[in-house]
């Protein structure tokens, strides 16, 4: 069995996490923490994109009223993201949080977590112990006998042992770094040291969309292929809905979960006689409203035509100023270049 099939399952609102449940897609709100309407609008957009759990920062106690209102109205479970202030974590648990996220490096130490555990247990919600490379506990950060992955794993393991020693077991762990090899090594250590604890995986501070998606796909893809990771966030300096799209695209590429269409398109070459790059982008845009699994191919010539993409549900193979629309490798209609996009979408909508 894979590691994520044997972890202890916890519930985040109505979403099962761990224990063989499908890998959960998460993102984080970036609207002002006191703006209830802006956060709810963002949650609606994230839900439409396929997000299953959202996280909201509580930077100060005067944001708790807004947080409570967001939790009460949100169609998705809302995780309270807490740093520096254990009392805010206690209050968030009492005000509707579906899960708490705390950072061992700045929450105030193990004893400060006692009240947090009590509040979470009373509310019946899990806690994520979220270790970050940039905010490790000072004593661990100063050690020279451990690598960074070992420090991150040690921090998480110490908190898990303390929580479980007090009888609190509804735990999720993350231990993030911006460095991809360090991230991979850390999560492999965590999966070995605490195989019963669900893991939230991610590359933190991954960057803007292009770099961030590549870094995350490289690191998280390797982990997911090994069965490590019960939930993920692809962290981007961009619109959070793009994080969700990237998560689903990664899960589809690994054939772990499927939600929306997969676009198969060739990279073009001198044989291509239509504007395939523009066509592929138009098809990609038109497919975004479809939320069912579907393989769609946009191919530039007969070399990469119906035969190359015969496993696609629908596709088009382009020739000189024309295109042949095909389904599972069999041509269903031929159209002029100007009509390719509409013809392909008509066939997709008819499925």
Give a nutshell description of this structure.
By secondary structure, this protein is α/β, with parallel strands linked by helices. The chain has helices spanning 36-49, 64-73, 86-94, 113-123, 138-141, 148-165, 180-193, 209-225, 240-253, 276-287, 340-350, and strands at 10-12, 15-17, 24-28, 53-57, 78-82, 99-102, 127-132, 171-176, 200-201, 231-232, 261-265, 294-299, 314-319, 322-327, 330-336.
Structural notes for this entry:
- The protein has 351 residues and is an alpha/beta fold.
- The protein is built from 11 helices and 15 strands.
- The strands form 3 sheets. Strands 8-7-6-5-4-3-10-9 form an 8-stranded parallel beta sheet.
- The longest helix has 18 residues, at 148-165.
- It is elongated and about 70 Å long.
- The protein starts with 9 loop residues before the first strand and ends with a helix.
- 46% of the residues are buried.
Total DSSP E strands: 15
**Apparent shape:** elongated
Largest sheet: 8 strands, parallel
Strand order of the largest sheet: 8-7-6-5-4-3-10-9
What structural class is derived from the secondary structure elements?
alpha/beta
Please bin the fraction of helical residues: 25-40%
- Round the mean pLDDT to the nearest integer and report it: 93
**What radius of gyration results from the CA coordinates?**
23 Å
> In angstroms, what separates the terminal alpha carbons?
36 Å
Low confidence ranges: none
Order of helices and strands: EEEHEHEHEHEHHEHEHEHEHEEEEH
Helix run count: 11
What is the beta-strand fraction?
15-25%
């Amino acid at each position: 069995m894979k590691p994520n099939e044997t972890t202890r399952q916890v519930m985040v609102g109505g979403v099962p996490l761990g224990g063989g449940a499908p890998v959960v897609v998460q993102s984080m709100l970036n609207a002002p923490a006191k703006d209830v309407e802006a956060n709810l609008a963002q949650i609606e957009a994230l839900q439409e994109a396929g997000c299953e759990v959202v996280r909201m920062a509580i930077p100060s106690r005067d944001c708790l009223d807004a947080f409570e209102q967001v939790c009460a109205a949100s169609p998705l479970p809302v995780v309270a993201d807490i740093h520096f202030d254990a009392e805010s974590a206690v209050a968030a648990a009492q005000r509707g949080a579906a899960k708490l996220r705390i950072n061992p490096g700045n929450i105030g130490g193990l004893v400060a977590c006692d009240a947090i555990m009590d509040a979470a247990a009373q509310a019946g919600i899990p806690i994520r112990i979220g270790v970050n490379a940039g905010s490790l506990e000072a004593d661990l950060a100063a050690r020279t006998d451990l690598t960074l992955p070992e420090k991150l794993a040690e921090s998480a393991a110490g908190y898990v042992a303390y929580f479980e020693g007090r009888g609190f077991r509804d735990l999720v762990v993350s231990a993030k770094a911006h460095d991809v090899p360090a991230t991979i090594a850390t999560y492999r250590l965590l999966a070995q040291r605490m195989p019963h604890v669900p893991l939230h995986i991610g590359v933190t501070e991954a960057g803007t969309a292009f770099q961030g998606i590549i870094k995350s796909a490289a690191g998280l893809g390797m982990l997911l292929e090994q069965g490590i990771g019960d939930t993920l966030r692809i962290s981007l300096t961009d619109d959070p809905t793009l994080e969700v799209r990237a998560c689903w695209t990664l899960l589809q590429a690994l054939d772990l979960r499927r939600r929306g269409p997969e676009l198969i398109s060739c990279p073009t070459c001198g044989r291509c006689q239509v504007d395939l790059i523009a066509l592929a982008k138009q098809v990609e845009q038109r497919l975004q409203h479809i939320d069912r699994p579907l393989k769609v191919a946009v191919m530039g010539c007969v070399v990469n035509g119906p035969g190359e993409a015969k496993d696609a549900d629908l596709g088009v193979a382009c020739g000189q100023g024309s295109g042949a629309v095909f389904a599972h490798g069999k041509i269903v209609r031929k159209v002029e270049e100007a009509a390719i996009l509409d013809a392909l979408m008509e066939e997709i909508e008819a499925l």
